What does this fold into?
Amino acid sequence: MATRRTQVGIIGAGPAGLLLAQLLMRENIDTVILESRDRTHVEGRIRAGVLEQGTVNLLGEAGMGEEVMRDGQVHGGIEISLDGRRSRIDLAGLTGTSGVTVYGQTQVVRTLIAKRLGAGGEIVFEADGVVPIDVESNRPRLRYRSGGVEHELVCDFIAGCDGFHGVSRSHVPGARVYERVWPHAWLGILAEAPPPSPELIYARHPRGFALYSMRPPGRSRLYLQCEPDIDPAEWPDGRIWEELRRRLGPDDAGMLQEGPVLERLVASMRSVVTEPMHHGRLFLAGDAAHIVPPTGAKGLNLAASDVHYLSRAIVESCRGGSGARLEAYSRTALARVWKAERFSWWMTTLLHRPVDHEGFEARILLAELEYLLSSPVAMASLAENYVGLPL
Ligand code: FAS
Ligand code: PHB
It folds into this structure.
């Protein structure tokens, strides 16, 4: 067994693990990332696309501010289409911020990997069978196999950044898991075609929800609400484009330009929160601890806010501080997580076609949406949650 030491062992090279490693490395804290997949797979995932200002600031602290400034698109508003009638939510004007930045998660991951490796940081790709050991001691360890050799990494702290299907959450004994599985899914495509509008359109339509987003420069990221168990083979490109047109409504359907479909995915929707987010010297961050339906564009941003709190807590502790921030990490992170869970639940409930789409609740949701689009106060509440609550 090959044994060595580091200060912080990080499980997972997704946005949470990479961002944490980068922030700690800039504070001269030694880290090792153990990632189960290969680099090509990790860099090939197409996921989130909207960054809160707090996330942009953190990426700046992590040394990739120039890339986000250069390639990101600042959006001062979003549009909500109610049965084909579009209304703009003036995110910037209602919150006094610049709004949000459209910048793909794929670019975040690729850039952070390149910066880490370029600065001599270590990522062990294809690390098999990673398992945290003795997390209740002050020398927690990570065991894993790499290149057919058993390894042991002795750490001061372990960060579980291994996503919803990772190993970390199961090492928080007695954790309470709050969960809601939604009766919807999203069929998403990435298309070589300009988006129908320069800003995102969230469409509520009797046929179902649709989202018209983008990936600079000049590509569309488009989603349709669908049944959780759809067979993608029954959704050829032509059918997807036709449905996207219909959910924009007759006045706006002509705005949609078709193009080659480069990527498709079906994303199930669930809301999950694990409490607490730590045990001993194991700390969970990102999807390892919580999941949101993507409607509110919070998943990646919550990973970033966890890392904001965890990185500062680890730095304080490594500098001989009291450890108070580490003690408070779970409570501090969860306070923000639950507010984002609520917002994601509200946006999803409001905009998706409910199972009982002709009952009392369906009419209430329609009334709420009509109220939202007629009330500057209600729009301001949506805006401050969408751009991101304070860290
Ligand atoms: P991640 O899941 O990104 O990263 C975890 C990493 O850990 C992965 O690289 C994984 O390979 C690795 N890992 C897992 N188990 C391991 C083990 N045992 N040992 C070592 N490594 C292990 N969010 C949005 O805001 N907007 C969106 O549109 C959106 N779309 C999404 C679409 C899909 C299909 C999915 C699954 C998620 C989507 N999300 C979206 C949420 C997503 O962006 C997450 O919030 C974000 O990836 C969270 O980052 P991490 O916490 O780093 O987890
Ligand atoms: C995306 O561009 O992928 C995206 C944007 C906003 C969302 C979800 C996904 O709410």
Notes: The CA atoms of residues 166 and 364 lie 39 Å apart.
